[in-house]
Amino acid sequence: MAKNTKQQIRVLMADDHAIFREGLRKLLDGDDEITIVGEASNGNDCIKMLSKLKPDILLLDLRMPDKDGLAVLEEVNFDQLPTRVIVLTAAEDDRDVVRAMRLGARGVVLKQSATDLLIRSIHKVHNGEIWLDNHMTTEVMKAFSKSSDGGPRREKPLLSDREKEIVQLVAQGYRNKEIGEKLFISEQTVKNHLHNIFDKLGVSDRLELALYAIHHRLIDQA
Question: What CATH code is carried by the domain that includes residue 54?
Fold first, then answer.
């Protein structure tokens, strides 16, 4: 069936199980805005195809031969690609998930999740947001808390309206300069607000801030 004329989300799949890839292809082919541009069965092929195809989304299995998903994330400089990564995993190992997020993954989807959640995750991550289901968000935040050297976090932080706006924009993937342009403030002012937000929430970086915001419902999630 031919895709419509809307801007397509170009997806590369990387998974070593051919049957799983076939099922995934059938699922994604049902969305008019998603186009599968390639399939890789191992980490080495995935890296080669990333460089050649430059997809919008990489669906990356954490467990693959030759190079696993974590090794791909370590080797590839995604700052130089338009690609955002969604990790696919069959195991709820929060250590691997935290490491994947630290290495630049923007979403995590359990393979046993409902099919509509995978499609939603692709659209959300393509729009610059972070995707974790409620259970995974809780587990990741627990892992961040265990590894954090900071003090206890406040369950109900006293954020100003401006700080809440900035938190929402950070969670949606905007950089400091872009946030400043949207809010008509300087980039330095954004940095100052972020410093105060990090201090109030007890988080150490933008990723942890976004995950904290999702977990504590500090941002609106459709």
Answer: 3.40.50.2300
Q: CA distances (Å), 135 to each of 22, 59, 217, in order?
A: 27, 20, 14
C-alpha atoms less than 13 angstroms from C-alpha of 44 in its C-beta half-sphere: 2
Within-domain flag for 1: no
User: What would the pLDDT profile of 94-150 be if each residue is shown by its tens digit?
Assistant: 678 888 888 889 898 888 887 888 999 999 899 888 888 666 766 676 666 665 544
In a domain, 158, yes or no: yes
Closest CA to 202 of 142, 138, 150, 145: 150
Distance of CA 199 to the CA centre of its chain: 24
User: 112 with 131: CB under 8 angstroms?
Assistant: no
Please indicate, yes or no, whether residues 19 and 91 belong to a single structural domain of this protein. yes
